[in-house]
Design a protein that fits this description.
The structure is a single chain. By secondary structure, this protein is an alpha/beta fold. The protein is 35% helix and 26% strand. It has helices at 10-21, 41-44, 55-67, 80-93, 106-122, 146-156, 223-236, 245-248, and strands at residues 2-6, 25-30, 48-51, 71-74, 98-100, 129-136, 164-171, 177-179, 187-194, 201-207, 212-218, 242-243. The protein is globular and about 65 Å long. The mean pLDDT is 96.
Length: 251
C-alpha cells in the first residue's frame, strides 16, 4: 500500500516506522514547510493519507487531500465537532473517504467498549456520581482530549440521568489549577492535566458514599496509536465512506 503522511512530528515518524515494517511504502511526506506538495503526483499516487497534525490545520489538510482524490485517515482532535456534519456529507454524497478517530489505540477501543458496558450497569445505580480525568503531555493543545470527549459521549448514551459533559479543572504544566468539578446533577465533569511527556491516561470514576469504582487506560508510548492508525489505513484502502473505530473493531 502507498501511504502519504501529513504531519511529520513524533506521531508521524512512529507511523512511518510501523508502516514500513508492515511492508508499506511512504510516497509523500507533507509538513509545515511543503504544503504545496499536496498538488503533486507523489501525493496523488497514495492509496491513503494519514493525518496527525493540529486542530487549526486538520480540516484544511483533509480538504486538500480530498481535492487530490486521496482517502484520509485522521487522528487530529479538536476540530471534528465543528465539521462532522460536513465531513459526513462529503463522504456520503460526494464519494470522499475519511476514517476519523479521537484515538487509534486498540487498548482504547477495548477500554471504550468496557466504558459503555459499565455505564449501562451504572444507569441502574443513581447513588454513584461519575467523573473523568485525562492526563497528557504538555504539548497537547486541546483540553479535554478528544478521547475523553468520546468516552464521555459513550457514558451519556447509556446513563439516563446525565445529559452533557462539562469542562472540569485544568491543571497546567506549571501546576496551576483553574476551573471546578462542581456541576449540575445532569452533567459529567471532565478534568484535564498537562504534565511532562505523558502519552495519555484516561480515568473514569464512579463515586458513592460507600465506595468507588475506577477504570483507567494508561498508554505507555505512541506505538499503540501508530499501529492502530496503520491498521485503519489498511482498512480504509479497501473501504469507502465516513469510517471509524467501530468499523475496524466490531465489539
Amino acid at each position: 500500500m502507498k501511504i502519504a503522511l501529513i504531519g511529520y512530528g513524533k506521531m508521524g515518524k512512529e507511523i512511518e516506522k510501523i508502516a514500513l515494517s508492515r511492508g508499506h511504502e511512504i510516497v509523500c511526506i507533507i509538513d509545515v514547510n511543503n504544503r504545496q506538495d499536496f498538488d503533486s503526483d507523489a501525493f496523488r499516487s497514495a492509496d491513503v493519507a494519514i493525518e496527525f497534525t493540529a486542530p487549526s490545520v486538520a480540516y484544511s489538510n483533509c480538504m486538500e487531500a480530498f481535492k487530490q482524490g486521496v482517502k484520509v485517515v485522521s487522528g487530529s482532535t479538536g476540530w471534528m465537532n465543528s465539521h462532522a456534519l460536513e465531513m459526513r456529507q462529503l463522504c456520503q454524497r460526494e464519494g470522499k473517504t475519511l476514517f476519523w478517530s479521537s484515538n487509534f489505540s486498540l487498548g482504547v477501543a477495548i477500554f471504550s467498549a468496557v466504558n459503555k458496558y459499565l455505564a449501562k450497569i451504572m444507569n441502574n445505580f443513581p447513588g454513584y456520581e461519575v467523573s473523568m480525568e485525562e492526563t497528557h503531555h504538555i504539548h497537547k493543545l486541546d483540553a479535554p482530549s478528544g478521547t475523553a470527549i468520546t468516552l464521555a459521549e459513550g457514558i451519556l448514551e447509556n446513563i439516563d440521568r446525565k445529559d452533557k459533559w462539562v469542562m472540569g479543572t485544568l491543571t497546567a504544566a506549571d501546576g496551576t489549577v483553574s476551573g471546578t468539578t462542581e456541576c449540575k446533577e445532569d452533567e459529567i465533569p471532565v478534568s484535564a492535566v498537562r504534565r511532562g511527556e505523558v502519552a495519555g491516561i484516561h480515568t473514569i470514576t464512579y463515586e458513592s458514599a460507600a465506595d468507588s469504582i475506577v477504570i483507567t487506560h494508561d498508554a505507555k508510548n505512541r506505538q499503540g496509536f501508530a499501529l492502530g492508525a496503520v491498521l485503519a489505513a489498511e482498512y480504509t484502502a479497501q473501504h469507502s465512506g465516513f469510517l471509524g473505530m467501530k468499523d475496524l473493531f466490531n465489539f
